[in-house]
Amino acid sequence: MAPRSARISLERAKSLVGLSMKVPDYWWDGCKGYRLNDGVIDSYDIVEQKWNLLLNSRDDNDRYLMNYTAVSTYADSDSSTIDEYQLPFAAIYDGDDIIDANNGVRYFRTPPTEWTKIELEAGLNEGGRTIDPIEWTGEKEEPVNITDEEIESLKDSDGEIRYEKVFEWCLPRFGDDKDQSLFTWQAARMRNYMRKKEVEDGWKPKYYQGDDTIQPDHVARLYGSLLAKMLTGSRSINQMFCTREIFNAVPPIQESMPKNALEDMTSCLHYSDDWDPMGDADWDEVYDDPKVVAPPHTARHRVKHGILEDCYIQRWQYCVNPSRWTTTDESRIAGWYHSCMTIGPDPKPIRTGATLHTVCITQGPLSSYKLYARVYGGKDDQDMNVHNRHTVKKAKMVSLYDFMLESFKHKGHCVVMDSAYMSDAMAQIGRNHWGINMVGTCQSDRTGAGKLGKAGVKAKEVVIGSHESLMYQHNTKALLYTVWGDNNFVKTLSNFHSPVVLRGGMKRKKRNRSTKRRDREFTDVDCPIQQKDYCETYHLIDKGNGAEAKYDLSTESHLHGWSPKLAARYFNMNINNAYKIHCYLFKKHHPTKVVMPLKECIHNLIHSLLQRGDTMRKRGGGAPPKATKDITTSSSVDGRKVRSDSVRQPFTSPTATVTGTPQTPVSGLDRRTLQYRQVAFKRRKESQPGRSHISIPVVVKGNRATSYCNYHNCPGKNTGAKRKKPYKSKYACEECSLEKGDDFWLCNSTKKLNGNLVVVDCHRAYHVQKKLYTAPSPVSTAESSIISELTE
Q1: Whole-model pTM?
Q2: Is residue 579 a contact partner of residue 600, using CB atoms and an 8 Å limit?
Q3: How does pLDDT run across 534-569, given as a tens digit for each residue?
Q4: Are 693 and 736 in contact, with CB atoms under 8 Å apart?
Q5: Where are the domains of the chain?
Q6: Contact status, residue 636 vs residue 630, Cβ threshold 8 Å
Q7: Which of 349, 422, 536, 792 is the most exposed, having the fewest neighbouring CB atoms within 10 Å of its CB?
């Protein structure tokens, strides 16, 4: 039956008649294999809206119907007549106003039959076809894109360029006119999120009360505290504000802000207003700052940090003029928490850490400068989980590179990558559609020559440690695959190198085949030219990542998922980027001076951030902990005194000899038991409103009481014994024990006095004295008179 949808333009359909085709075996149902079958488009079937394929084989005169996707995918792109046909990425229908007539050829892994092994003749270093790289047409200006006025703004009063000013110049800009700094923009997002927590969750900040709100200078101090925290071993907030131990305290942070302010800002870290007001309220009625959210097309995992990520990338690329050679890599941010990256419908994304894809400069004075950084959102990453228009199958890495390298297309850049990205399809698309030279390691199953390389290794045409090479070149395409026998087999694929071997082109420590140990000295060895370019370039991005790893920032917010971690990582990358620019500008404008080491630059940056704006403290922070400590006893405590009801009591050794004023003992009840008792008492009090300070017996082991009475006028002290001490009791006040956090023993029983049993009621006497009970009326019984005599 004829399709009911829009009909393909008959004029355009007939224009494809005569198109040469190369169709693999697996296109036919029930067939497998990659052997290509030559054919031609014979005619167009108007009813089926498909094209008839006629094979060149003499034994097969059948015609096979192909839809437009198959025609554009398997068109012979190497045919001499391919330029006579227009192959848009989608079929053109009747009534289409806009027609994309670009070449719609799709790429896939090439078959092994299209590759030829290159054998070098004796005495020659090259063979096969010569492949010319795409010409470099990029900017040949200064590496740093900065004006004279901006350079002057980076200098101090002595005319010297300061790192902390370069760092802020490299930070992202926000707003339509790019007139908002990172600190101003983030302060607005944090104010909105704090307001949301107050309105919707009933949360109450400790520092920001009344008219006090988060200001841009406060955010700068927050970042300064994160840097200081990183340098001091990533201590907790309680440790950084410690007043008793010098090895925990961080005095610059204590002087910069109160502890409550740091806790409030840490709990309100946010980078997007990705929520709606409750009920029917308008945003402006509830929040003081305008709403800022990511664009509608943003991938789900980037909603919270996408704006921040994009602005960092734009600023980093604006600040420099990249050189020709760049390198791409993937790294991991350790740890994972509840967020849109780790929860949601199956299949689950990566849980061991966020994968970060980066692009950096790898040649020139700005080597290891980051140009691009993007977080992978797992299998369901909406930006990558699409069918790229240049590929037959869903190649995620091609989709990733399509927008990662957008700023570097058609300039002749040389991009170095590893096996996670490289393939036949990637190399062809990079050269034919993006104008990019590509080289990198490649897995054997991602190129048609991989099968040939495996066979050569199995036949021992090249062995490990020989530093010999196998080279395979595609018959018609600009593709070269090599297998190099280093300390392991290194397989590389390039779309701009010719089959050339450099004699003595690299220095390596050879491995002794008998002892399996490497030599101490380097030896000149032969290698393919594309292997040399890869080895001289790719390690530079690892060095840059290593330099950044020394100063990785960490946050203490586990509730927000990945956004604070990623924001800290981008801030960390900016440290290295700013230092690269600082070194270049400093050497250019101060050639006789020595550049300050990175660690000292970071010290100055921290002080600059922590001292930004007006003071945040409403009263002094107090003296820092003493540099010395009394270690003669484990019970001595320096600094601010500890309240007796504080849950954080100092450690007291059970064998320590306490001198001076003794500390308040820690409760005998553990925290959980005390909580259970308080809950039970509250329940009993609700059912018995009159229940107040009841004397209750406590279960003890044996027949002896467990503790002495706590009443200072206990009649046990008046028995005439040589050592005065109160009676032992098995009764404790229910409410007083809960208030004091320990069993509060009070006598409420009979005792023998001169052979007679008398009532001892310290429980009532104590509470009357504390005005918790009303004094009893005068009594005349013998027992009462005895009570009066013994308990006053």
Answers
A1: 0.71
A2: no
A3: 999 998 888 888 888 788 776 554 555 678 888 888
A4: yes
A5: 7-94, 156-296+563-611, 320-550, 671-770
A6: yes
A7: 792
